């Protein structure tokens, strides 16, 4: 079981709409660890670590996010693996 991490930057109407809460819930559901954090420019940074298949499912989910949000763009980049304890909302 290969563990990896991916960082996503999600742009659109993603702050003030419960995006981080729903992302955290989705991460736990997919057995991922990491965090979701608001950025000063209105984007949300999401770091997820876990199995490749689960990360791919999260990447797909982030393309539309929860119904309360509007995702315009998602940029992803692989990052070095770091074990996180659970999925945090920062």
Can you describe what's shown?
This protein has 90 residues and is α+β, with helices and mostly antiparallel strands. The chain contains two helices and five strands. The chain has a five-stranded mixed sheet. The radius of gyration is 12 Å and the shape is globular. The chain starts with a strand and ends with a strand. 31% of the residues are buried. Keywords: Hydrolase. This is Acylphosphatase. Residues 5-90 form the Acylphosphatase-like domain. Belongs to the acylphosphatase family. It comes from Vibrio variabilis.
Radius of gyration: 12 Å
Taking the sheet with the most strands, its summary is: 5 strands, mixed
Estimate the helix proportion, in percent.
Answer: 10-25%
Tell me the β content: 35-45%
Oligomer: single chain
Strand order of the largest sheet: 4-1-3-2-5
Shape: globular
Structural class: alpha+beta
- In total, the number of strands is 5
Mean of residue pLDDT?
A: 96
N-to-C series of helices and strands: EHEEHEE
Quick recap:
The chain has 90 residues and is α+β, with helices and mostly antiparallel strands. The protein has helices at residues 19-29, 52-62, and strands at residues 3-13, 33-38, 44-51, 70-79, 87-89. A hairpin with a 5-residue loop joins strand 2 (33-38) and strand 3.
